[in-house]
Amino acid sequence: MVTILFHSTIFGPVHSRRLGTSLGVNLSPVDGKVCSFDCVYCEAGYNSQGTGKSGLPSREDVARQLESKLKEMSAAGEPLDVITFSGNGEPTMHPDFEGVIDDTLALRDRYYPGAKVSVLCNSTRLDREGVVNGLRKVDNCILKLDSALTPTMRLIDQPVSKTFTCEYVIPQLEAFGDKCIIQTMMLRGNHDGKHIDNTTPGEVDALIEAYKRIKPREVMLYSIDRATPESDLQKVEREELESIACRMRDAGITVQVS
Question: Which residue of 87, 129, 151, 222 shows the fewest CB atoms closer than 10 Å?
Fold first, then answer.
């Protein structure tokens, strides 16, 4: 089974297929996972592995480690396109999320003013003022919508909350409008005796209608690229992704396939 990949608060830089040269910030424990989703495709594994013993890093520790790394990279003349919040869970679950964002923006401006700050967010906490405030400050607010149909979303993302639905989250995504980028994982396969496929015409039609309502800056359409905790999942190849993207573009939606 896939388990934790990020054993530090600051990791990389790595090459992101969507964002370029990226320095990662992990606001989850370095020895466990804290997430409000339990996605069947998560490269960090299922939540059942536990939250570990290290706890969440403090705001002060994140800033200290990030400044140390940025200072080191700047002195060495290393390039940096983006500082990306991802890691072993959902970054907006950190209790000082907005403050961490403020610190990160200040450090970015000091050491790499041309770099962007991105947050990969699963969209489960958009009903919290501090989370929304923090997300609105970053350059790339990347919000997840893997299906616009609740039964499929629940199969893929397995939200911890039993009441989390597409009907609940899509209006919250709509409130961000072109301030956000929507990220959608396309996949098919089986999990726990149930078939998953968000590439069907009905699924794509529902996504198109949701995107038209949200009006994001763009949609990031992608598929599995690494090992997943569920072994019976299939990657959607680029040619098929491009075909799906064409349908979306025909509806007036800006789509990036990666």
Answer: 129
109 Cβ partners below 8 Å, 6+ apart? none
Token pair listed for 137: 């400050």
The strand order across the sheet containing 194-197 reads 194-197, 187-191, 233-235
Is it the case that residue 144 has pLDDT exceeding 60? yes
pLDDT of res. 97: 98
The total of other beta-carbon atoms located within 10 Å of residue 248's CB is 20
d(CA 51, CA 42): 15
Distance of alpha carbon 74 from alpha carbon 211, whole angstroms? 39
Cis peptide before 13 (omega within 30 of 0): yes
Distance CA 32, CA 4 (A): 7
Residues 6+ apart with CB under 8 A from 111: 67, 70, 71, 73, 74
Pairing type for strands 140-144 and 116-121 reads parallel
Give the chain's end-to-end CA distance (angstroms, integer): 25
pTM as predicted:
0.95
Summarize pLDDT for 182-229 with one digit per residue, the tens.
999 999 999 999 999 999 999 999 999 999 999 999 999 999 988 899
**Averaged pLDDT, 217-242:** 95
Query: Phi/psi at 115 (nearest 5 deg)?
Result: -80, 155
- HSE-CB at 134 with a 13 A cutoff on CA atoms is 26
